[in-house]
Amino acid sequence: MEYVLGLADDALVTAQRMGWWISRAPELEEDVALANIGLDQLGQARSLLQHAGALEGDGRTEDDLAYWRDDRDFRCVHLVERPQTDFGVAMARLLILSAYQNELYAALLGSTDGVLSGVAGKAVKEVAYHLDHAHHWVVRLGDGTPESHARMQAALDAEWPFVEELFTPADPALVASGVAADPTALRGAVLDRIAKVVAEATLTLPEVAPRLGGGREGRHTEQLGYLLAEMQHLARSHPGARW
Amino acid sequence: MAQVYGNDFGTPDQQPGRPQMPPGPADLDPETFVELLADEDRVEPRDDMPAAYRKTLVRQIAQHAHSEIIGMQPEGNWISRAPSLKRKAILMAKVQDEAGHGLYLYSAAETLGVDRADLIDQLHSGRQKYSSIFNYPTLTWADVGAIGWLVDGAAITNQVPLCRCSYGPYSRAMVRVCKEESFHQRQGFEILWTLSHGSPAQRAMAQDAVDRYWWPSLMMFGPPDDDSPNSAQSMAWGIKRFSNDDLRQRFVDMTVPQSEALGLTLPDPEIRWNDERGHYDFGTIDFTELFEVVKGNGPCNAERMAHKVKAHEDGAWVREAAAAYAAKHAVAEGAA
Amino acid sequence: MSTPPSPLWEVFIRARRGLNHVHAGSLHAADAETALRNARDVFTRRNEGVSIWVVPSSEITASSPDERDAFFDPAGDKVYRHPTFYDVPEGVEHL
């Protein structure tokens, strides 16, 4: 369940951050595109949360898990938690996340957990599009104007310390039984993919020390608490209510 | 003047700014044009048309497009706080549709020889308007329901006849918009239904939202026919098919039974069925509030505009980068 | 904002295999790749398509409404191009 929650929470928190962009994108067309990406991530999160609830076996629904867990019980990585109110940051983060999810879901196609492989089958097409979208913009911003080049590089620098946490080893038993995709095994392909885009964008891969993570064990950034407070407050104000 | 998505009209002391129009290919005289309309039914972009027809259309379509875009904000306000993941997904898809609808409409306006960037400039500088309904705040989750049920309901009542509007690109855009919007009103009704059948607090939230949104929704149809001097022209030109008051009555007739099904009270003690007329009677609308909102004194006028302008300005470097990249690579391809 | 307005593109969508691409609308984009992606997001949110073309609006040459009579009227009286023009004796099938 912890492993599935990790996947689910990455997607849920990403959807929550992406929702902020709707009505704030640089072009109307991009409002529509970012909403699509947010909706895909939200859809993945819902399927995964339902699965996590079923694995737990206590009858918790997707909403119980999304709205009634505290931040210490969330399992997302730090990468997705922080606000992303700069378009360059949003695209840098989307590039990193979708490059990772692309390899992840491709590997999960062969998961011995039938539900996980089913979710992966749908998600793998969605994140391929997210990766394409991020690629498209990172290249245009990197190789656009001097200002956009500088801003895109700064965005990449800002996100880069959070990349390593994506490859935190998963429960060895789950990997051995073929349920989980081994995150450490994804690392090479993910970094390779990102490096190609960064080169095409005339940007430089940052050389910065990775930050200490801890998200998979429930140790988060301070920003996650605010995100959850906003997301959960209405549901929690009306315990037991249907919506 | 035609009503489309609310306040396509000025306050009594102020007429809305007119867009700067490029001269049309030909200024057809209005009488020939009306005959031509009877003959052809639809006008297409490169046909000759009277300058006034072109001007009226540009202003109406632009305002309609602006309304879709500004309309993203009041509901977008609740995306982050939607009380279930299903509702969050529905709301994201709905607000996304509004951006899409704005795009369809800007495209329709562009077939008349204006540029979207100019129209957006005119919105930002206050020379063109958007529907005043979006200057009201969304204070609770139930407001999302009330906007779907009442505001989208009123908009659809206005928009369905526009699917047969005389200008081809506008009517085609409206066909698409109406088809997509059919889920918008239903999801709003469903939100209110769930709330009105929920806890006492949820029920009170629903009633409060209906109390606040009912009268502004009625005002979306514009001033009474007696005060709408340009409607006749728009009707002769086939831009408008029904008068403000007719559409308002149609909306009331549809909505009253729905409110009974919801078990919510519309805040008008004068609503009752009139057997003789075959319609519901309703109270007199106090338009002074609407005129205040149109003038810019509504609860959220300043915030809506500031939000829109900020998004546009914050995105400038991205648009510049896209243009620079395209130019660079067009040259590179040309050289290759 | 000094950015020049991005070019306009016409979008054509094939709804299903076996059908023609049909004009769906137009949109703005700095380049063709962006136009294609935007078209996917704007015009196929509800499964409306399996294939998309984008064409710069400025590249379209259109017939003029002024020439309409000269262009299209001559075809009006050539009724012999339609099968309904011909009499077939009763009882003759598969024709």
From TrEMBL, chain C:
InterPro entries linked: PaaB, PaaB_sf
Enzyme kind, highest EC tier: oxidoreductase
Keywords (A to Z) from UniProt: Oxidoreductase
The enzyme's E.C. designation: 1.14.13.149
Matches recorded under Pfam families: PaaB
Any one GO MF annotation of this record: phenylacetyl-CoA 1,2-epoxidase activity
Highest taxon of the lineage: Bacteria
Keyword Transcription among UniProt keywords: no
UniProt key word Ribonucleoprotein: no
Coiled coil (residue ranges): none
NCBIfam families tied to this protein: PA_CoA_Oxy2 (TIGR02157)
UniProt name for this protein: 1,2-phenylacetyl-CoA epoxidase subunit B
Lineage: Bacteria, Bacillati, Actinomycetota, Actinomycetes, Propionibacteriales
Gene that encodes it: paaB
